Amino acid sequence: MGRKFTPLKRPKTLSIGGATFDLFLIAGKNIPEQEGTITLKIGGKIPVERVVESAGGGACNTSVGLSRLNLRASFCGIMGSDQWGEKLKQTLIAEGVNIDPATIVENETSSFSIILTLQSGDRTIFYSPGVNEHLQDTTFDVEAVAHADAVYLNHLSDTACMIEDDIIRTLLKKPERWLSWNPGGPQLEAGHTAPDTASLLRMTNLLLLNKEEALAFTRTKTVEAAFRTLVKSGVEKICITDGKNGSLATDGKHRYRCPCLPVPVVDSTGAGDAFGTAATWALLTGNSLQTALIAGTLNAASVVGTIGAQEGLLTETQMRKKLSQRLLTVETTSL
Q1: Domains defined for the chain, CATH in brackets
Q2: Which of 42, 45, 71, 317 could cross-link 66 (Cys pair, CB 3.0–4.6 Å)?
């Protein structure tokens, strides 16, 4: 299932998941880090260097990223009618994303994050799911899935997991439809053998995880073991990112390793979405898995050089120019 996709020049894509309004507090040197932790004094008043507003959330990020790469992108998720929801809506429209499959909820707060960005580029996120919790059967546009050439399923909240049945039923009717999937917390906790999860894995063309997620999802201790487990689950292609150590992928026969592009990290928010977006674009348009790894790495490197998850997302012209420069080389070995 899910392996009959024929590459298209401009496929219609549908990103399913969340949209979040992000407020970045750039702390700089004002909050020191020590062994992966920070300390905030109760009652203290901590200055920040600047404040940046940005659209974010998995499906918002990936739909904007796919649109920048010249695909016909749609967003399927929930936004509020408040000022944050209006900003999210206007961002998607300005980026050329179709929001017809989205649902606007009145008189409730949109999903909202306050992101404390540290000098290292790492961050601590204060998050309220807001209206994202309303992504359920009654608000989910199943017909949008039926009319898409490719689906990008992003992290889903606990309450949104009920739409998995609808997605599975719709994908079963059209085996040639593409599925990229980045499982979220509920799926990772349940593990790769949970019934709906196992069904989705058999339909997945491209599975996207970071190293910690891959090990938790498969209950394994190494990336190699995770790869073997996921290949047996029926996934066609798997990409696992590992921060500064680069990224790995497999097609079930070979293992590919791409180094990280050495760039200054300003903010790591959205790096995973940027990687997955570009890797998906590469494969949808007929490129190899090796090229997908490179494209994902280039997009992520561009995003971490800016504040926010979307500012640094590459356009198709920028991506093709960077790919032509051969900045990265992929190592290939047997799985």
Answers
A1: 12-19+57-111+132-334 (3.40.1190.20)
A2: 71
- Determine the distance from the C-alpha atom of residue 53 to the mean position of all C-alpha atoms in its chain, rounded to a whole number: 20
Q: What is the pLDDT of residue 3?
A: 57
The stretch 250-278 carries a mean pLDDT of: 94
The tokens for 245 are 């150590």
Instruction: Give the residue-averaged pLDDT of 118-132.
Output: 84
